[in-house]
Design a protein that fits this description.
Chain lengths: 468, 62
């Protein structure tokens, strides 16, 4: 096999299982690419070659003995540095936890490990996952492999950058206000933000106990389906994790999209679209139509209000987690994160509880759209990909507006608790552009079905950035 | 929300805030709260936060 890094996660897993390629070869190929790309992208916080080779050799030896292994046997992955692994540092992208050693292992990591995945190391991220652009003032900004002067999106910045550059085959991210969907959009990947509680959050650094979700970034929709099937499901370590049955998402990917209905919410979600981004959205809609999907124009409830409620919740809950550090070591935060946490401190109990008790009603109003459709299609971000320099605003007064612009179309979906899948839909100004498919609660299956059908008909997800 | 309330909350939480920051926070938070601004009609008196779990379960049924 010429270059295994160009395979999808699913294809590599099959190739290793059939002994067409060894796990050691796959790990070596990833490490070679990491050596080439890491100086340009700064997407890894820590690379662990010895541990990766040890795991890979164990997989290869087991396969040689014809042992039955898990669905990710020998596949090299890397994860956002906020998933705890016992005995290892989990920086959470922060100065405060620069040397903090985890005393537990995240359930999501345990499940991926049990499925045979090999861990390459930990990935860069926004400080405490509280930043939408990919800037990190402690470990250095993460860079987009399609153009290193441009943002990756955040907070799962390293996950987006590393998977898009073919340095790892998939990565865990987390999404509290768009932190998986935005890096997927900006880097040209599939990114699944599951329904709230679909995946255990045990051992994942918290930001907002109401809005946090664990999900994945991969090159294809099928890859995300495979990873989500493995990490989703009930967990005794997280009593909030849903006990609902986890479907075979990969099997759902093989079903045709014909006959499904897609809602198009022009108002709010399609407002102020850059013409080049609008062209990508139009082309994606036309492709779905060709696939036999019925397009239905719909009106959403007041999404500005949903966004404002989400802001109150995330700011208050983040400030709650960080209250002690904010009192004792405020100087260890970046200006931007400190300013956002200060705002959260000032949310009153009445404002917070009002935002929480409106959530059910807001969800019911949004769910009315699903009387006419099986899923909703919306953009992720309305403008061309900005540069790192133009969005490097720190804690200045501009920061609030820039953060709000990044998260505007994603954060409402976290407040509503719904699943959303970001899918590469084309390019604008030579940078990838995605769209998000939003589903009913716990109906990730329909999103995978639509996304996979779209990817069978298009080739955006096969395009890779070039090193130069 | 006024700067003096922000300052009082910061003091209660042992957070040091310069005057400029209290004004900026009061302004930003005021704008967000105004956009949310629950009205009596659209935000029934009886609702509790746990209502969301019921709505999520209802929404999952086809």
């Amino acid at each position: 096999m010429s270059d295994p890094t160009q395979l999808s996660l699913t294809a590599l897993a099959q190739a290793i299982a059939k002994c067409k390629i060894s796990s050691v070869e796959a790990v070596q190929a990833c490490l070679d690419r990491i050596a080439e790309w890491q100086p340009k992208l700064n997407c890894f916080i820590r690379v662990e070659p010895e541990a990766a080779f040890k795991s890979a050799k164990a997989v290869d030896q087991a396969l040689a003995k014809r042992r039955k292994l898990g669905p990710l046997a020998g596949v090299p992955l890397a994860h956002k540095d906020m998933y705890y692994r016992f005995g290892k540092v989990a920086t959470c992208g922060s100065a405060i936890r620069r040397d903090w050693v985890a005393d537990t292992t995240a359930t999501a990591l345990e499940r991926l490990g049990a499925a045979g995945a090999v861990n390459l190391g930990t990935l860069n991220m926004a400080e405490f996952a509280f930043g939408p652009s990919g800037h990190n003032w402690h470990f250095g900004h993460c860079r987009n492999p399609w153009d290193p002067s441009r943002v990756t999106g955040g907070s799962s910045s390293g996950s987006g950058s590393a998977v898009a550059a073919r340095l790892a085959f998939g990565a865990l991210g987390s999404d509290t206000g768009g932190s998986i969907r935005m890096p997927a959009h900006f880097c040209g990947l599939a990114g699944i933000k599951p329904t709230t509680t679909r995946v255990s959050r045990a051992g994942a650094m918290p930001l907002s106990f109401t809005l946090d979700t664990v999900g994945t970034l991969t090159r294809t929709v099928e890859d995300s389906a495979l990873m989500l099937r493995i990490v989703a499901g009930a967990d005794s370590a997280d009593p909030t994790a849903s006990t609902r049955r986890v479907p075979d998402y990969l099997a759902e990917c093989r079903k045709p999209a014909k006959g499904l209905r897609l809602a198009i919410p022009r108002k709010f979600f399609f407002d102020d679209l850059d013409p080049a981004v609008a062209k990508v959205m139009d082309a994606a809609l036309a492709e779905f139509k060709r696939l036999g999907v019925k397009l239905v124009e719909v009106e959403t409830p007041d999404m500005e209000r949903v966004n404002a409620a989400a802001m109150l919740v995330i700011n208050a809950e983040a400030a709650t987690y960080h209250r002690n550090w904010m009192a004792k070591t405020p100087q260890l935060y970046s200006d931007q994160v400190r300013a956002r946490l200060q705002t959260g401190m000032a949310v009153t109990a009445v404002q917070y509880l009002d935002a929480m008790r409106w959530r059910g009603q807001a969800l019911r109003e949004f769910l009315a759209l699903f009387a006419k459709a099986d899923a909703v299609l919306a953009p992720v971000y309305v403008k061309p990909t900005p540069t790192i320099a133009e969005t490097d605003v720190g804690g200045s007064p501009n920061a609030t507006a820039i953060i709000a612009a990044f998260t505007r179309l994603c954060r409402p979906i976290n407040y509503l608790g719904l699943p959303a899948l970001s899918v590469p839909g084309g390019f604008a100004h030579d940078m990838p552009i995605g769209f998000q498919l939003i589903g009913r609660p716990f109906d990730e299956s329909t999103l995978f079905r639509l996304g996979a059908a779209y990817q069978r008909a298009t080739d955006w997800h096969t395009r890779a950035p070039k090193a130069n | 929300m006024t700067p003096s309330i922000v300052a009082a909350i910061a003091t209660a939480n042992r957070i040091e805030l310069p005057t400029q920051a209290t004004e900026a926070i009061a302004s930003a938070l005021g704008a967000t709260a105004a956009r949310f601004a629950p009205g009596a009609e659209s935000h029934p008196f009886e609702r509790e936060p746990s209502d969301f779990d019921a709505a999520l379960a209802e929404g999952a049924k086809r």
